[in-house]
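Re: beginner question about structure tokens

> Can someone show what the tokenized structure looks like for a real chain? I only ever see the sequence side.

Sure, here's an example I had lying around. Input first:
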Amino acid sequence: MAQQFDVVVIGAGPGGYVAAIRAAQLGLKVACVDAWKNARGGPAPGGTCTNVGCIPSKALLQSSEHFEHAAHGFAEHGISLDNLSMDVPKMIARKDAVVDQNNQGILFLFRKNKVTFFHGLASFVKTGAEGTEIKVTGAKEEDLIAKNVIVATGSNARALPLAAFDEEKVLSNDGALRVGAVPAKLGIIGAGVIGLEMGSVWRRLGADVTVLEGLPNFLAAVDEEVAKEAHKQLTKQGLKIELGVQISEVKTDGEGVTIAYANAKGEAQTLAVDKLIVSIGRVANTNGLNGEAVGLPLDERGFIVVDEDCKTSVPGIWAVGDVVRGPMLAHKAEEEGVAVAERIAGKHGHVNFNTIPWVIYTSPEIAWVGKTEQQLKTEGVKYKAGKFPFLANGRARALGDTTGFVKFLADAETDEILGVHMIGPMVSELISEGVVAMEFKASSEDIGMICHAHPSLSESTKEAALAVLGRTLNF
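And the corresponding structure tokens:
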């Protein structure tokens, strides 16, 4: 006898578990199915983000940043250290503990909100007037039927056609987070978020890191001025970044990995490394879902086709997060998950793609929301720009990190904020002010008139807004 639910969520990543919790808060009977396993074979909800993405990468970034501060930054504070060393297995163990805490936290939230959790792989059986039938295959098989199904199965790393992942020498984001010792030489294909963050981790710990990028421009989606500053700082730190390359061959042997490529000038090059991280994007994960059983539509790239409300063409079936169109960001998935739960409950869910923030957790951090200067120029929008450097910020000086700046872009006539771009210390936290401002259609003058705490990094946000008006106070 199938267990009946108002909503079954397939996948317990950021989009899925949040959708399940919100639906339960709205009084619906909810189940969530997820197949991730931890090292003990138990449930590990949280998806790619918690298990092999956002959370573990930030744990390693934090550990490696502490190490770099101790090695190169403590002396100017009067702190001396002798025989500094990094215990990589202990660092990895801490990362694993952070992941487990997040896994257990989600299971607690399910219990708290009365969400029934099933540990296993969910696949569609059929759909009809009574609802959609789902089979769960795991330690125990279960049959479920739901009035509404939310697919939140996430994405998988895109493999390089020339070299499959073996997670020993050719690594996806998963293998990159489980390296047991600092490689002498590390190669990275793809200068995106994952490539730059993982490259930063191992470069800080002593690896010789080379990043190969196929595009001719560095961080093409980022505001050009920010991207230029990021390239300068990361190169200065020791990352070797080659742009406009074409990979022709990848070979693995007992010694490591050899990559043959042509550089931007078309010259043949060879790079020999101990390990290679491939970070060339991600693909929608519909493995084992058996979507054909219910006629679930996929586009030419393998994403589930949905409308602006995240509805598929199959009645009662919705999809959110990385498995559908739009930016592959955990917080985008969360917003869609909440919105769909509210729509199922008869409310009006809200997602504004124009105010979704982006962050790259390198050092300096990079964060932005809204339009870049190059986008505004292409679209023919008249705008004003204002910029303020962290070099002129008292808190940044006290921190000892004055790299970067905050930049506002505002409509030339109305002064409405069109984009906010930042590179520097803790800008992953500062960007939220820009998101709130844009969501409420604030002007740069509005931000300039708001009192900000002193001394704080956030004063740079106020000053950049004032710069749009040509009246900074501290620069």
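Each token stands for a local structural state, so reading them left to right follows the chain. The mean pLDDT is 97.
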